[in-house]
Amino acid sequence: MEDNLKIGEREFQSRLLLGTGKYRSFEEMQASLAASGAQIITVALRRLDLSRPQEPGLLDYIDPARYVILPNTAGCKTAEEAVQTARLAAAMGLPRWVKLEVIPDPRYLLPDPLATLEATRILVAEGFDVLPYINADPVLALHLQDAGAVTVMPLGSPIGSGQGLLNLPQIQIIIEQARVPVVVDAGIGAPSDAALAMELGAAACLINTAVAQAKDPLQMARAMKLGVEAGRASYLAGRIPRQPYASASSPTSDLAVTAS
Q1: Mean of the pLDDT values across residues 251-259?
Q2: Hey, which residues are catalytic here?
Q3: Is the pLDDT of residue 37 over 90?
Q4: Which CATH class is domain 5-237?
Q5: Are strands 5-7 and 10-12 parallel, antiparallel or unpaired?
């Protein structure tokens, strides 16, 4: 049976989204993308050097026939900056969708909820598919869905921290209430974190630092792919409920009598 990820009108086989920052080289990034099996690749527009178009840059290492580029507004501190960046991406011919990040806080890198909601409303009205990055706030997640966001993307823990799913109870509530796919983004440090997010019912995981900064990014990209796939399979299979007592796996009645 097909079990595809649907975001707006787009459909994908892979439920792992991969970022393109922090790699040691473009070649290492390119190989890691291939190893991950990801189809959606996020690109921070502010990382692109448009002043030297003759020199090879990030986009030259991403095959547009193989991947769908998801522009993101990393580095934007206000709703106005994020909206302008999304418009720039569309003007460059990139897909008319955006991972919306509005982060004014330079130390903890926590997203601004009010500015994120404001920018979402503006971009949805302009015809963008908006994928907003948020703290694990169930109330905000509902407001963003009402505003027309095609996903909500709660953080598991601070960006790049590798601390895993510290916001587990809130993420569970967001998933329970969601009318759009929930993509867990930020804080995933190991395949077990990704598997746990998927077991909860998340639609996908977005991962960057855990792969890019691993000792062996290619091997970690493969591991994350398997973690996401295992977690999704577990969610679909339906785990047994947790119980406060033991339950024998073998029958306890009508046992064969052994000779004395």
Answers
A1: 63
A2: 99
A3: yes
A4: alpha beta
A5: antiparallel
Distance between CA 45 and CA 177 in Å, rounded?
A: 32
pLDDT higher than 70, residue 2: yes
Percentage of the chain modeled with pLDDT above 70 = 92
Q: Which residue's entry shows tokens 């990055």?
A: 133
Annotated binding site for 1-deoxy-D-xylulose 5-phosphate: 160, 186-187, 208-209
Tokens of 95: 């897909």
* 100 contacts 129 by C-beta, under 8 angstroms: no
Burial of 203 (0-12, 13-18, 19+ CB in 10 A): buried
Per-residue tokens: 155 = 């953080």
Measure the CA–CA gap between 105 and 165, rounded to whole angstroms. Answer: 21
- What is the mean predicted confidence (pLDDT) over 112-125? 97
In degrees, to the nearest 5, what angle opens at C-alpha 201 toward C-alphas 196 and 207?
55
Query: Rounded distance, CA 224 to CA 230, Å?
Result: 10
Write out the binding residues.
160, 186-187, 208-209
In the numeric block, the tokens 């510290």 are attached to: 166
pTM for the whole structure: 0.89
Report the distance separating Cα 188 and Cα 207, nearest Å: 7
DSSP result, 100-129: E-----TTT----HHHHHHHHHHHHHTT-E
pLDDT digits (tens, 9 = 90+) for 5-34: 999 999 999 999 999 999 999 999 999 999
- Are 195 and 164 in contact by the 8 Å Cβ rule? The answer is no
pLDDT digits (tens, 9 = 90+) for 141-193: 999 999 999 999 999 988 888 888 998 999 999 999 999 999 999 989 999 99
Q: Around Cβ 66, how many Cβ atoms within 10 Å?
A: 11
